[in-house]
Amino acid sequence: MAQAVLFEDTITCEKEQTEAIHLGVEARRLEQKYAARMREDLRMGNLVSYVGNKEIPLLRLYRYKEAFAFRFVEEWLTRFEVHQGDSVFDPFCGMGTTLLVASCRGIPAFGTDRLPVAVFIARTLPLFLQVRPGELTKIFEHLRRAAPLTEPASVALDVAIMRVAFPADILLALRRWKAAIDALESPFREIFLLLFFSVLESCSYTSKDGQFLRLKREKRPATPEEALARKVWEAETDIRWIRELGWHRTFLPFQVALGDTRQLDGVSFEHPPTVIITSPPYANRYDYTRTYSLELCFHFVQNFAELKELRHSMLRSHIEARLSPAEEAPHPAVRELVDFLRARGKTLNNPKIPDMLTAYFVDMQKSIREWREVLAPSARVAMVVDNVRFEGQVLPVDLILSEMAEGEGFAVEEIIVARYKGNSSQQMGRYGRIPTRESIVVWKMQG
Q1: Is 143 exposed, middle or buried (0-12, 13-18, 19+ CB in 10 A)?
Q2: Are 236 and 133 in contact (CB under 8 A)?
Q3: Do residues 7 and 393 lie in contact, with contact meaning Cβ atoms separated by under 8 Å?
Q4: Contact 57, 131 (CB under 8 A)
Q5: What's the rounded Cα separation, in Å, for the pair 330 and 351?
Q6: Which of 6, 148, 182, 300 has a Cα at 20 to 30 A from 311?
Q7: Residue 18 phi/psi, 5° resolution?
Q8: pLDDT at residue 433 in the model
Q9: What is residue 51's predicted lDDT score, i.e. its pLDDT?
Q10: pLDDT tens digit sequence for 123-172
Q11: What is the distance in angstroms between the CA of the first residue and the CA of the last residue of the chain?
């Protein structure tokens, strides 16, 4: 009976269903509280995903599919009237889109991320600005001759995906190419490693698909030589392109650290940041260490033990998140849903989901508190977040994080709905296609 009271507000599906979508009491309270500050701007829907970067030099070289678009950052730098006297911070910087856009405008920028491959990409992209047209082609020809004669590089072969992701001959060739690239001088070593990481998917049976790195045995894996040849041609095109755009003249080098935004006391900011433009991992069971496991196993971890240690050090947005007995959900709307899901018991899709949701919001509260400590007075925040649904129950992540931010000294200026997203096929089968919001929350430091 208590569950029926807590989730009494029902959204009717368009087709006949045996179950329905519910909105909890606390979630409805939040919807009412922030209704006046919510608005749609569906034009932004094309900017909150990586798709917009497919036509942007450098950012198109590596498909970091969780990134938002170059134009998204430009939009918010303009809206916030950011100038060269400001300082931009991205605490979940990923491949460094925010940092790159700010730096091309001559604006100081700093980023952190916990995923080593993301930090590597962010650090390496600016190195292309130092390269003259034609240089990469010459080095590629050297690598083409050297790779077949090079002793294969050591990789984390005890990770299960590495044993099934590649045909044996292609895996051996990739290891030889990796070793040949490792022997290059900087910055070409880093540049060719980035290009190497960018072709691992095409050389494998895998596909970065949704929340997983999926095996697709029907694929015809490319050879490293043919895949890298295409990528070098693309990079040469981008080098000429960025010179035409003049990025090499206006670019102000940014800083990026392999760090944890849940604990920023060891991070040194030259100036207190005046702007945050970011997007955290979503509370959707997504495990970055699985999706980017090929890249990690070729360079950043030596074995499965190291990969597992990295997995458990990430922001806890995935179902392998570990929750300590003393931790509890820091917001009543989260507690309401967690209690409901735990009451479902064995019928729950995954019994670890309640722990994941609790841990996720504990981590986000820690992050917001850290931002409060490092930001300049009156600093602004634009953050892309995604609402989620489990067992038909909608959790308004945008509103929960906003109310949590108010408790840490931020004012909620607006919540912009960028697009509406459908639910998973499993959820649709039970509850119908009821879209959830992907939003941009806009906050300002008070005091």
Answers
A1: buried
A2: yes
A3: yes
A4: no
A5: 20
A6: 182
A7: -90, -15
A8: 53
A9: 84
A10: 999 999 999 999 999 999 999 999 999 999 999 999 999 999 999 999 99
A11: 45
- The answer to whether the CB of 384 falls within 8 A of the CB of 8 is no
Bridging pattern class, strands 388-390 and 393-395? antiparallel
Q: Are 155 and 162 in contact (CB under 8 A)?
A: yes
Per-residue pLDDT tens over the stretch 44-57: 988 988 888 888 99
Q: Which residues are CB-contacts of 118 (< 8 A; sequence separation ≥ 6)?
A: 64, 93, 94, 95, 96, 288, 292
Question: How far out from the chain centre does Cα 296 lie?
Answer: 15
20 vs 156, higher pLDDT? 156
Q: How confident is the model at residue 338 (pLDDT cuts 50, 70, 90)?
A: very high
Distance CA 187, CA 253 (A): 15
β-pair partners for 212: 209
Which residues, 6+ apart, have CB-to-CB distance to 138 below 8 Å? none
Record the tokens describing residue 385, joined without a space: 């977040």
Q: What pTM does this model have? A: 0.91
Q: Which residues contact 50 (CB under 8 A, 6 or more apart)?
A: 63, 64, 65, 66, 67, 68, 69
Q: How many alpha carbons fall within 13 Å on the CB side of residue 97?
A: 33
Three-class SS string for the chain? Answer: CHHHHHCCEEECCCCCCCCCEEECHHHHHHHHHCHHHEEECHHHHHCCCHHHHHHCCCCCCCCCCCCCCHHHHHHHHHHCCCCCCCCEEECCCCCCHHHHHHHHCCCCEEEEECCHHHHHHHHHHHHHHHCCCCHHHHHHHHHHHHHHHCCCCCCCCCCHHHHHCCCHHHHHHHHHHHHHHHCCCCCHHHHHHHHHHHHCCCCCCEEEECCEEEECCCCCCCCHHHHHHHHHHHHHHHHHHHHHHCHHHHCCCCEEEECCCCCCCCCCCCCCCCEEEECCCCCCCCCHHHHCHHHHHHHHCCCHHHHHHHHCCCCCCCCCCCCCCCCCCCCHHHHHHHHHHHHHHHHCCCCCHHHHHHHHHHHHHHHHHHHHHHCCCCCEEEEEEECEEECCEEECHHHHHHHHHHHCCEEEEEEEEEEEECCCHHHHHHHCCCCEEEEEEEEEECC
Integer Cα distance of 196 and 124 in angstroms? 13
